[in-house]
Design goal:
Blueprint (H helix, E strand, L loop, with lengths): L3 H7 L2 E4 L5 E4 L2 E4 L5 H10 L9 E4 L16 H16 L5 E2 L9 H7 L8 E4 L13 E4 L2 H10 L1 E4 L3 E8 L8 H12 L7 E6 L1 H4 L3 H9 L8 E3 L4 H7 L8 H11 L12 E6 L6 E3 L7 E3 L15 H11 L14 E4 L1 H4 L2 H11 L9 E4 L4 H9 L2 H7 L25 E4 L14 E4 L2 H10 L8
Parallel strand pairs: 3-4, 3-6, 4-5, 6-7, 9-10, 9-12, 10-11, 15-16, 15-17, 17-18
Antiparallel strand pairs: 1-2, 2-8, 13-14
Helix pairs in contact: 2-5, 6-8, 13-15, 13-16
The protein binds 3-isopropylmalic acid (IPM) and iron/sulfur cluster (SF4).
Length: 463
């Protein structure tokens, strides 16, 4: 009896040392401009080639501007980063390179699945913590460091020690107006940011099975924010329907063979996990964060904990985060004015997020006091937004669309929230300074973001 994780892991072991790390074969390697330069330098220094060039997909996303992408990049650091990336892709003959402006360009964890690079049963790595996103397809997907990027480029393998396994089951159904992001923020608020450290998580249960692929990606994306090595969901018809026909998905006979194998990828009845946790989906309401880590979340109608409700050991950092956010313990945040709204990132920058946001703002008007950055996760998402007529509805409601990239998720470009300003953000991290020095981030799902953009305040989208 094996778990889903065990089945995929065991199928990729090249060699194993007793009590040591395992040499694991990697099916797909994703690469972006921030964590790859030193890896390529390492290869150059040792005179090594890339072992399997067609197994690495490269896209520029972190340092990219979200306006005027057809113009030369103005910021010299970003320009250097992007030029180096292009030089490396050319020098090492990497055919799957999607630079700025390319139709396949976008945030790495968005372009992978939408182009069919991400498959069930695969091992997937990238020098990026949110690689966990790809686990939504029933893959073992995790972030790696730059020296490991070099290892994968040179050998298509990686040395890894086997993580412990955890299953998190969500019974029942999500309420109306409650999104996958709310489910994930709820889970992290219960488990805390360290609650899954050392584990690889499988998500299960009725509420998970009912999620679309985009929603499953949102949940797996956030696994890392509770410390997990990765998160995964067993593939099913929803998964197969999503993958089928995508450009880099298996085709013809290869598809039939893959499908037959993918259908075996589920945890066997009675297989043991190192830890099991169960939640009831009906307990979840739209979520917001109030502090400076993703675990500091609460239902939108709830109040920030009072000092006495916080563990003594955590009080100093709790107070520090209250000062940074400009909140008081015990505050209710519903109705509080905000300044910025960011819809985007590898957490919520997919087409369904834009559909949800647009459906909410349709026929309404953006609040005058809000600056709204709507940043599609990729050019394919951007194209779809236009084709489906969403852009017309957004424009009518007073919104504009920017060009794809990580953008204000980590503000490595010009999309920085000014110090002291409040941003309701669909991204994944609310750390101090994450969206710009002094910026105050309130994490939420696309519906809460839409409601805030319309009222200029923290607003329950169900109201
Ligand atoms: C730049 C990169 C290393 C980083 C990560 O690994 O997560 C970034 O994507 C982030 O979200 O903070
Ligand atoms: S969108 Fe944000 S979380 Fe995702 S890869 Fe880019 S910076 Fe990291």
């Amino acid at each position: 009896m094996k778990t889903l994780f065990d089945k995929i892991w065991d199928a990729h072991v090249v060699s194993a040392v007793k009590d040591g790390p395992t040499q694991l074969y990697i099916d797909r390697h994703f690469c972006h401009e921030v964590t790859s330069p030193q890896a390529f330098n390492g290869l150059r220094a040792r005179g090594l080639k890339v072992f399997r060039p067609e197994k690495t997909t490269l896209t520029a996303d972190h340092n990219t501007p979200t306006i005027d992408q057809d113009q030369p990049v103005k910021d010299p650091i970003s320009k250097n980063q992007l030029d180096t990336f292009a030089k490396n892709a050319a020098e090492f003959n990497l055919p799957l390179f999607f630079p700025l402006g390319h139709i396949k360009n976008g945030v790495v964890h968005i372009i992978g699945p939408e182009n069919g690079f991400t498959h069930p049963g695969a091992t997937i790595v990238c020098g990026d913590s949110h690689t966990s996103t790809h686990g939504a397809f029933g893959a073992i997907a995790f972030g790696i460091g730059t020296s490991e990027v070099e290892m994968v480029l040179a050998t298509q393998c990686i040395l890894q020690s086997r993580p412990k396994t955890m299953r998190i089951t969500f019974n029942g159904k999500l309420g109306k107006g409650v999104t996958a992001k709310d489910l994930a923020l709820y889970m992290i608020s219960k488990l805390t940011t360290g609650g899954a450290t050392g584990y690889f998580v499988e998500y299960a249960g009725e509420a998970i099975r009912n999620l679309s692929m985009e929603e499953r990606m949102t949940v797996c994306n956030l696994s890392i924010e509770m410390g997990a090595r990765g998160g995964m969901i067993a593939p099913d018809q929803t998964t197969f329907d999503y993958v089928k026909g995508r450009e880099f998905a298996p085709k013809g006979e290869e598809w039939e063979k893959s499908l037959a194998y993918w259908k075996t990828l589920k945890t066997d009845e009675g297989a043991k996990f190192d830890k099991e946790i169960t939640f009831d989906a009906a307990d979840i309401q739209p979520m917001i964060t109030y502090g400076t880590n993703p675990g500091m979340g609460m239902g939108i109608t709830e109040s920030i904990p009072t000092l006495s409700e916080v563990d003594e050991a955590g009080r100093i950092s709790f107070q520090k985060s209250m000062e940074y956010m400009g909140f008081q313990p015990g505050d209710k945040l519903e109705g509080k004015s905000i300044d910025y709204v960011f819809l985007g990132s590898c957490t919520n920058g997919r087409i369904e997020d834009f559909r949800a946001f647009t459906a909410y703002v349709k026929g309404k008007k953006k609040a005058d006091n809000v600056v709204a950055w709507l940043v599609p996760g990729s050019w394919m998402v951007e194209k779809q937004i236009r084709e489906e007529g969403l852009l017309d509805i957004l424009t009518e409601a007073g919104f504009a669309l920017r060009q794809p990239g990580c953008s204000a998720c980590l503000a490595m470009n010009d999309d920085k929230v000014p110090a002291g300003k409040y941003a309701v953000s669909t991204s994944n991290r609310n750390f101090e300074g994450r969206q710009g020095p002094g910026a105050r981030t309130i994490l939420a799902g696309p519906l809460v973001a839409a409601a805030a953009a319309i009222t200029g305040k923290i607003t329950d989208p169900r109201a």
